[in-house]
Amino acid sequence: MHPRVQAVEVLPPYGLRLTFRDGSSGIVDGRRWLHEADGTVFAPLRDPAFFAQVYVDHGAGTIAWPNDVDLDPDTLYDLAHPTQEKPEDGAENQ
Q1: pTM of the model
Q2: What is the per-residue pLDDT across 10-25, written as a single tens digit (0 to 9) for each?
Q3: What is the 3-state secondary structure of the chain?
Q4: Bridge partners for 57 per DSSP
Q5: How many angstroms separate the CA atoms of 6 and 10, rounded?
Q6: Are 74 and 2 in contact (CB under 8 A)?
Q7: 5-82: which CATH number, 3.90.230.10, 3.30.2020.10, 3.30.230.10, 3.30.70.260?
Q8: How far, in Å, are 24, 43, 71, 79, 94 from residue 75 at the CA level?
Q9: Per-residue pLDDT tens digits for 35-61
C-alpha cells in the first residue's frame, strides 16, 4: 500500500502534479483515462474545464471529480513514480 494523495495541481490540459503524504510528487498524464471514454463515467473528463475540477478526496486519499469519478490511489502512486527499466541481461557488465 502506497502513501495517499495529499495535493493535486492541474497542468493544462490533462496533466496532474500529485503530491503524496510521504512528501514525494510526480506528474501523471490524464489523457490515459480519456481513450475509449465514450459512454463511460470518464467521458466528461474530455472537457478540459471539467478535468480541471479535480480535487483531493482526503477521506479516500485519492483524486476525484464532481461526477464521482475517482481513481485508485496505489495506481496513481505507481504512475507518478515510474520505475526505471531494468537493463537487458549482461548490459550492466559493459
Answers
A1: 0.84
A2: 999 999 999 999 999 9
A3: CCCCEEEEEEECCCEEEEEECCCCEEEEEHHHHCCCCCCCCCHHHHCHHHHCCCEEECCCCEEECCCCCECCHHHHHHHHCCCCCCCCCCHHHC
A4: 62
A5: 14
A6: yes
A7: 3.30.2020.10
A8: 15, 20, 8, 6, 34
A9: 877 888 999 999 999 999 999 999 999
> How many whole angstroms from its chain centre is CA 44?
17
C-alpha cell at 35: 481513450
What grid cell was written down for 32? 490515459
- The residue count of the chain comes to 94
